[in-house]
Amino acid sequence: LIINSGDSENTTVFLKKLYQGTNKDFTSITELLFSQSITAVGQNTLLTITQKIHQDSPNNYKNNYILANLQALKGHYQQAFILMKPIIKKFPNWFLATRFYVELLLNTQKTKQAAAFLLKKHRKRPNDNDISYLYTKTLIEQKKYKSAKRLLYRLQKTKRYQQEAQLELAIIAQQEKNYKKAQKLLLELTAS
Fold first, then answer.
1. pLDDT band at residue 170, thresholds of 50, 70 and 90?
2. What are phi and psi of 5, to 5 degrees?
3. What is the largest CA-CA distance in the chain?
4. Alpha-carbon distance 56 to 25, whole Å?
5. Structure pTM?
6. Residue ranges with strand state E in the chain
7. Where are the beta strands (DSSP E) in 74-158?
8. Cα–Cα distance, 75 to 81 (Å, whole number)
């Protein structure tokens, strides 16, 4: 209710108190706060609030994650990188942070760096479907279709990534000018 009131002063106080809590699984609450806050108080106000919190508590990872997202929305990718690097080190298994960091790399044309970052994660956790899927995106971006297809065929068998993998396979087929296969994959996808 505090966030939805649009009162930036009370929202700042509320967020500071919430961040001081000991909730270890803050991923979902951080995402919820981000979406709720940006809707209620607006992007610029939320940016101001998170910047104030960052000044008071520069190692507040929950706040820094939101601040990095806001910086990226404004096109300030370098500031977003600076905020995200310690988060990635401290929370290497936080998937949303990993995904956002990779998106930053891809949005700034650092595909090889994104691929190298994800390759390390993929080698440590080869059965992590979330990391595998992100990694395939970088492989496709680099036109390494054979490697991407190998992972996508595996992901296609999972419930969570079945449709995404099918779509990526169709895109690869189209890139390889195999239009019949691309069409078949897309038709199968729309039928499911």
1. very high
2. -70, -20
3. 58
4. 23
5. 0.72
6. none
7. none
8. 11
